[in-house]
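Posting here for the record, re: S-adenosyl-L-homocysteine.
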Amino acid sequence: MKRDLAGIGLTSQRTRARMIERLREEGIRDEAVLKAMAAVPRHVFVEEALAHRAYEDTALPLGFQQTISQPYIVARMIELLRSGRELGKTLEIGAGCGYQAAVLAQLARDVYAIERIAQLLDRARANLRHLRLPNIRLKHADGNLGLAQAAPFDTIIVAAAASHVPPALLEQLALGGRLLLPLGGAEQSLCLIERSYRGYSETRLDAVRFVPLVAGVE
Ligand code: SAH
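Prediction output follows.
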């Protein structure tokens, strides 16, 4: 039994190292992001039957018609959000099983992660408990409304595609802050919004495919 467990640990370390090499090949350059990705065991966040595929560069089903994001997308989005700077106080919309929140927690001062499906949030809580990351707070709520009681945020990252930018997220962005979200329906692209004293600026980036941002909680 002991030997089996050690075996799984070793396999996970080796496949995780391969995942990092692949992310480099795919163009992820931010060393801090690569280090954060290497620090989080993705197999903890996927269902046991899929654990052997945890370090493949694909999205995997989470149940509830949701998916755990592809490692490349998680790394790419956090790299864009950082733009070489500190993440500071971060809001994540669409925590799912908590994987991206765990990666963000390696880099951000505080992570507030919101999920609208209560059962998924329970799973995120259970997954994250093992990792002991005291700077993550999870909340069951509709991310369209942001999290007014903890605002303003230095960075906001949305893991579900919106048809338009939720106004609450713009309001809750700090001056000098950055908001990254997938925008669109059938065709989506990442949109980076930066807030300065002159107002908001918007940059359209990579084409992506996310589950939709849905209103309300369940
Ligand atoms: N961040 C996750 C990805 C989860 S997929 C990861 O690390 O893999 C996107 C998640 O967004 C789903 O769990 C979905 O339930 C959630 N979601 C969709 N609309 C939402 C909303 N309005 N508020 C909060 N979460 C939402």
